[in-house]
Amino acid sequence: MQATEQAIRQVVQEVLAQLGNGGRSTNGTHRNGDWGVFQTVDDAVAAAGDGFKALSQRPVSDRVKIVQCIKQLCTAQAEELGRLELEETGIGRLDHKIQKLQIIELVPGVEFLKCDALSGDHGLTVTEYAPFGVIGKITPVTHSLPTLASNAISMIAGGNTLVCNPHPAGRLIACEGARRINRAIYEATGLENLVTIIENPTIETANEIFAHRGVRLICVTGGPFVARAAMASSKRAIVAGPGNPPVVVDETADIDNAARSIITGGAFDNNLLCIGEKEVFAVESIFDELLSAMPRHGGYQLNCQQIDQLTKLAFDPPKDGSDHHTLNRDLVGKDASVLAELIGVQVPAGTDLLYGETDESNPFVPEEQMMPFVPFVRCRNAMHGIELAKEHEHNFRHTSIIHTREVRNMTTMGREMDTTLFVKNGPSSAGLGLGGEGYLSFSIATPTGEGITSPLTFTRQRRCALVDDLRII
């Protein structure tokens, strides 16, 4: 009896010690990991699996709390976390890194879940939207923490947990974000490891996640290589693939609005957004007027010689029989002033975007280059512009933009391009609820067809039928 009492007393003391230490053990780790950060895929998936079981026992109201925790954290700590991301990755703009975290509040949560019911002579059938379980997630370097936070909201709102393999160049901020998210969730609900992450991610750890028996679904936001790898997996994959969004401007457009919109979308975070304006096809009759309007909104025009210099720095010629130029990754996401300085040009303070006239053979036109330089190509008329836009979007079916007052031109381009996002008379960002109607997500699944992801994207349908009862009419 004495031994039993002593054992009980020891257990109680250990529990109290844990509570007094915020749930942390004396070696600095939180249970089986460092607040969701793990060294191996097996450990991360196992922890996320335990987290899913615990979450499944909680009411949906707890998911509401969790979503709010993530949104409040991103908003309150946006400046610090945005600065950390820029310091680690070295790409983009600080003001826009901060803004990308502040707008996480626009990502939808549990309110997107729904219940469908059919009532008839033979009773009542209800269809509800259930979680998959543990979701494997790959995040990009371009928006490391915003993508993780956005996906965490959508996936947890749907009742899932996740294990993340971040891009190696953005792993530090992703891991720090995961730690902070998990702490906030634990303090609000007592739940652990709803977001797990690999501290030292590699291609090998990504492949382990793709193949792991404990992972039920894959979601990838990244470049063509990792997108293809995910789609080759035996698991269902939700893949946000590449894009090269074109802009068509016709003779009926509001020229000042078109110029302002091109800079708003194309300059955001130095053109790192996959939806960002990458090339402009403008009709001959308003071409020069459009170029003249750009400086009023933060644009700086390069001449032909300067564009040629920049092109030679930004791209290497195609190799090994490929028809694609090789992008200079060192210039991706750099400020417009930095690109200008490389070619001996001093631009005015406040310059957001470089631009200039090219022909369609310039590699800035067909390549998704993610730099704050946008090429402008003359076209005969709107139909010619739409033809060029379709050719250089490469059938990615990602994003396209048109500026026109002619409804027929909108209709024709919408049908021809068949893109997931199609924006008329506004910046590309309007397609994600930023200045236009709709909701925000940092994962736009184009190759696999889910489109702009939401909590419903990460659920599966379950039907429950009650035969011959509860039809009360």
Structure description:
The chain has helices at residues 2-20, 41-56, 60-76, 78-89, 94-102, 144-157, 171-189, 203-211, 224-231, 255-266, 284-293, 304-314, 336-342, 382-393, 407-417; strands spanning 37-38, 115-120, 123-131, 134-138, 161-165, 195-198, 217-221, 237-240, 246-249, 279-283, 299-301, 315-316, 326-327, 353-357, 373-379, 399-403, 421-424, 444-445, 451-452, 459-467. With 473 residues, the protein is of the alpha/beta class. It has 2 domains: 37-241 and 454-463, 3-Layer(aba) Sandwich (Aldehyde Dehydrogenase, Chain A, domain 1), CATH 3.40.605; 246-435, Aldehyde Dehydrogenase, Chain A, domain 2. A 7-stranded parallel β-sheet has the order 11-14-15-10-9-16-17, sandwiched between helices. Strands 1-6-5-4-7-8 form a 6-stranded parallel β-sheet, sandwiched between helices. Helix 4 (78-89) crosses helix 5. The radius of gyration is 25 Å and the shape is globular. The relative contact order is 0.14. Mean pLDDT is 92; it is low at 11-30.
List the helices and strands and how they pair.
Blueprint: H1 2-20, E1 37-38, H2 41-56, H3 60-76, H4 78-89, H5 94-102, E2 115-120, E3 123-131, E4 134-138, H6 144-157, E5 161-165, H7 171-189, E6 195-198, H8 203-211, E7 217-221, H9 224-231, E8 237-240, E9 246-249, H10 255-266, E10 279-283, H11 284-293, E11 299-301, H12 304-314, E12 315-316, E13 326-327, H13 336-342, E14 353-357, E15 373-379, H14 382-393, E16 399-403, H15 407-417, E17 421-424, E18 444-445, E19 451-452, E20 459-467
Parallel strand pairs: 1-6, 4-5, 4-7, 5-6, 7-8, 9-10, 9-16, 10-15, 11-14, 14-15, 16-17
Antiparallel strand pairs: 2-3, 3-20, 12-13, 18-19
Organism: Symmachiella macrocystis
GO molecular function: acetaldehyde dehydrogenase (acetylating) activity
Domain Aldehyde dehydrogenase: 40-294
